[in-house]
Amino acid sequence: MARDKNWNKPYAIEVLTVHRDARGALYEALRFSSQDIPRGGQIYVYTLAPGARRGDHFHEHKSEWFTCVAGRVRLLMKTRHGDRVDETLDADVPRMVFAGPGTSHALVNETREVAVIMAYASKEFDPTDPDTILEPAD
User: Fold this and answer.
1) N or C end: fewer C-beta atoms under 10 angstroms in the chain?
2) pLDDT for 71-84, tens place per residue?
């Protein structure tokens, strides 16, 4: 993902560098300063059960960055201009996904294993103003 101070693109997907040794693996999912990711939001983790689908929404104001940290999921995204993404996110080959305002996104677990997603939203969730508009991502 190229540095983009304003994050004015509808979406981006970046391959993450994995450092492996006998102990396991490490990768830096988000680098707030060097990637110019806005502070003040929230980090959250969620799971997708086998066969589950989550998302199918976009946000008018907030942006989200997310990566699959366990398992494998299908990523679906649709921009306001009709561009579409249909790719696989796999914890063994980590990538960070950026979904900007107006980009509908969904994750589908088509495997028999639970998948785990780590995400960051540029604004904390406010139940009085959820900024979540339902729209299928495919």
Assistant:
1) C
2) 999 999 999 999 99
